[in-house]
């Protein structure tokens, strides 16, 4: 075993720490989706998680692991998405100050979310360089600790607690699928399966448009995307040097899906399960529908990663 | 007690009969909505019910109560909405043939729903007279039994089973709210509260645009609507002579809400709870938000009646 990979004890400690601060999200099933796939599917609903996504788990754990000194100086992150809201709420719950750098063009609904949870927003220009520059400045000025949304071991361990609950509540899973963007959820899930249910495969679903993780597993080094043209706004990022070795060692496969396949899968979840998931969450079901033959007859776990979507701008409108 | 009102035994028998054929739907809560209202709200999720709405309960019970002879001739109803799908699925589960009269302009998604569940569709002209004519013809030709979606005692008793479960699972409710359209759910809920938790008030939420039930309670006779211009497509109908006496005797109040208030409440449920409910389901929350002062500090039960909504035509798009 690669020695950059955390131990079962690390994961157990994380689970114990995180549990009081997050919802134990329900597992839902749908007879119609089972019939459609020819398998039994179990959906772990992180869209019902606090702040609307699994990101709450990693944020809680990462802040808890700081020293008292670090906590007193606060945390800083840059994100236009779910991690910004998660860090804001997690920090509030733990009595820590949160500085959030958001691009000036971030959706109003996300800005409002961060404000609701008490995060202090600094706006940057809408590009990565400016976001990083602002975050650096805040770090220097305040002594706040920078939290990376996916390439941080404590964040990865926190994200793994969803799969621990999943395995505890549904012991017969042959495979668990998650979406893959920055790689935190996929790496955490792979760790949980490795230590808690080692016969369970772990598969990532990735948009073909930003299939850096798929290419990284092929080439053996971290690959990047030339653009971020996917509806799955949570998956536009690339892997990092902390989660990549875990994914390389413990993930079985990554399946790529088209934008149309993502929208179709999202529509099925909305219409059949009557729950709201964001496009990123639909990527694993899209992968299952694409590779039905492979998944036939299996007990399939799917982590529905989040439900933060702007309901005034949905991809179904042009039907 | 008015002797047209069923007994507790009737309700108990219904509950026993219906249970094996329906989902015991979950009760969800939302911290943010509690804060918004200043009360504890409990949402009984009939949007997760089979066929996507509480209507399944009444359909199952009504078909079960037919004689063997009646069952062999099938059932017929006319509906463009949830009752059509519910009767189709209930009949299929009970091995009974279902004839469904739908207006020729019914939404494709509803037609597909009925087909999926095996109902035999006959299209009528898009008006009530033509729908009734077609249903009569089918009754005569096949001997099928006509099932009214709300003004049928077995249907009303079936709808009451949602509130029985609600009271069993959440024993501290001060009040339960349901939407009111044809009156089946409201009457059934009032019966359940009367016999299972008599200190719990029952309140109906109704669109101001089609407030026939509100006016009926005032005038003491069944009133009708001059038009059906409400987004709450499940609530466009009026009360009937079987449910009206029950509602008169056992319902405390009906609160009317505007179209804007319905859309606002629906958006809150979608965004905060991450679940899909149809506009009719949002009417009770709209009523609570309108009369916050009255509801302050109470333990409030809300029956979310259904989740069958055309996601390509949502009222949020013009935000």
Structure keywords:
homodimer, 319 residues, alpha/beta, Rossmann fold, 2 domains, six-stranded mixed beta sheet, four-stranded parallel beta sheet
Brief digest:
Chain A is of the alpha/beta class and 319 residues long.
Set out the fold topology:
2 copies of one chain form a homodimer.
Chain A: H1 8-18, E1 27-28, H2 31-37, E2 40-45, H3 55-64, H4 68-73, E3 75-78, H5 82-93, E4 98-103, H6 108-116, E5 120-124, H7 128-142, E6 145-146, H8 153-169, E7 175-179, H9 184-196, E8 201-207, H10 212-219, H11 243-250, E9 253-257, H12 259-273, H13 279-290, H14 292-295, E10 299-304
Parallel strand pairs in A: 2-10, 3-4, 3-6, 4-5, 7-8, 7-10, 8-9
Antiparallel strand pairs in A: 1-2
Helix pairs in contact in A: 1-8, 3-5, 3-8, 5-6, 8-9, 9-11, 12-13
Care to describe what's here?
The first copy, chain A, is built from 14 helices and ten strands. The longest helix of chain A has 17 residues. In chain A, the strands form two sheets. The first copy, chain A, has a six-stranded mixed beta sheet with strand order 1-2-10-7-8-9, with helices on both faces. A four-stranded parallel beta sheet of chain A has the order 5-4-3-6, with helices on both faces. With 319 residues, chain A is an alpha/beta fold. In chain A, helix 5 runs parallel beside helix 6, helix 8 packs across helix 9 and helix 12 packs across helix 13. The first copy, chain A, has two domains: 212 residues, 3-Layer(aba) Sandwich (Rossmann fold); 91 residues, Rossmann fold (3-Layer(aba) Sandwich), CATH 3.40.50.1100. At the A-B interface, helix 12 of A face helix 12 of B.
């Amino acid at each position: 075993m690669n020695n950059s990979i955390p131990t079962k004890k690390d994961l157990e400690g994380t689970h114990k720490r995180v549990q009081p601060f997050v919802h134990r999200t329900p597992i839902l099933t749908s007879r119609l989706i089972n019939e459609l796939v020819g398998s039994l599917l179990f959906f772990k609903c992180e869209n019902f998680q606090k702040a609307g996504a699994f990101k709450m788990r990693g944020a809680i754990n990462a802040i808890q692991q700081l020293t008292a000194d670090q906590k007193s100086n606060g945390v800083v992150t840059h994100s236009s998405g779910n991690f910004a809201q998660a860090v804001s709420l997690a920090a509030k719950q733990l009595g820590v100050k949160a500085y959030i750098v958001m691009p000036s063009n971030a959706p109003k609904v996300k800005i409002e979310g961060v404000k609701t949870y008490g995060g202090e927003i600094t706006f940057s220009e809408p590009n990565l360089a400016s976001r990083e520059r602002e975050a650096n400045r805040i770090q220097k000025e305040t002594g706040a600790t920078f939290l990376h949304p996916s390439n941080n071991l404590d964040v990865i361990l926190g994200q793994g607690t969803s799969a621990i609950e999943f395995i505890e509540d549904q012991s017969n899973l042959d495979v668990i699928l998650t979406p893959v963007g920055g790689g935190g959820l996929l790496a955490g899930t792979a760790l949980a399966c490795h230590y808690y249910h080692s016969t369970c495969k772990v598969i990532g679903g990735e948009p073909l448009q930003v299939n850096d993780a798929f290419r990284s597993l092929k080439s053996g080094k971290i690959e990047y995307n030339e653009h971020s043209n996917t509806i799955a706004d949570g998956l536009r990022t690339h892997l990092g040097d902390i989660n990549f070795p875990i994914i390389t060692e413990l993930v079985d496969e990554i399946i790529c899906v088209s934008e149309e396949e993502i929208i179709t899968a999202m529509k099925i979840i909305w219409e059949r399960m009557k729950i709201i998931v964001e496009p990123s969450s639909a990527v694993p079901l899209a992968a299952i529908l694409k590779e039905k033959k492979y998944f036939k007859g299996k007990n399939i776990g799917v982590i529905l990663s989040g439900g933060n979507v702007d309901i005034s701008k949905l991809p179904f409108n042009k039907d």
